[in-house]
Amino acid sequence: MKLTILGSGTSTGVPRLGGEFGAEWGLCDPDEPRNRRTRVSILLQNEAGGTVLVDTPTDLRQQLLACDVHRIDAVFWTHDHADHCHGIDDLRPLRYGRAGPIQGYAASETVRRLRQRFGYVFAGQHGYPTLVTLDNLETVRICEGFGVGHVQMPHGPAQSTGFTFDYNGKTVGYATDFSEITGGMVNLFYGCDVLVVDCLRREPHPTHAHLAMALELVSVTRCKRAVLTHLDKSMDYATLSAEVPEHVSVAYDGMVVDLEELAR
């Protein structure tokens, strides 16, 4: 199984628009390429040929081109906030040449909101085919060879879905956009080979995990390796990398983790 961090930034990306010179880098070194962050998403691939995408962020087209991804078999959405779903139309070219729609899954409330906002994607119209089928997460246990687990996580007043993907005895956990650690989260992510975890900034935030909370989740789940993502402009790659434990890495766009290599 191979994990690719397609995007590692917060909702505005890094650098953020609106600075004095049109790009606001905050504490991030603009000369460090790993500080240039698009909105969060991940890709999972297995040796059976299955390719699964989590979220369709605003920068999806750019991310897939940068990582040379030309096929998606299934999409899982964490929630319906703009930075996680408003790139959904970039799935349209990936429907070309397929015998049927791409599989799509989300929690029931996210399904409702996505259908309301992007009806043409899931039903087709005016002679255009359905791009994605959208089903409730309760209907899926295995998808494209991956075992799938999920849990609802507090995200301020809303909720986000955390996922695990299992293949060939290895597990990747994905926990982004959460503001509290629950027992259900600990149970789902416990013992993951790799846990990708929300880490917006160092100071507490009302709807996201900050550094201390992210490291707490890593500790209580006893995951073998963790990758910090959803990073804002205060989280310089080199500075943060120097202060986290050895088994914790800082995500960057295009980062690849090969789980078979980790086991060697």
UniProtKB/TrEMBL annotation:
<dbReference type="InterPro" id="IPR001279">
    <property type="entry name" value="Metallo-B-lactamas"/>
</dbReference>
<feature type="domain" description="Metallo-beta-lactamase">
    <location>
        <begin position="38"/>
        <end position="230"/>
    </location>
</feature>
<protein>
    <submittedName>
        <fullName>Phosphoribosyl 1,2-cyclic phosphodiesterase</fullName>
    </submittedName>
</protein>
<dbReference type="Pfam" id="PF12706">
    <property type="entry name" value="Lactamase_B_2"/>
</dbReference>
<dbReference type="InterPro" id="IPR036866">
    <property type="entry name" value="RibonucZ/Hydroxyglut_hydro"/>
</dbReference>
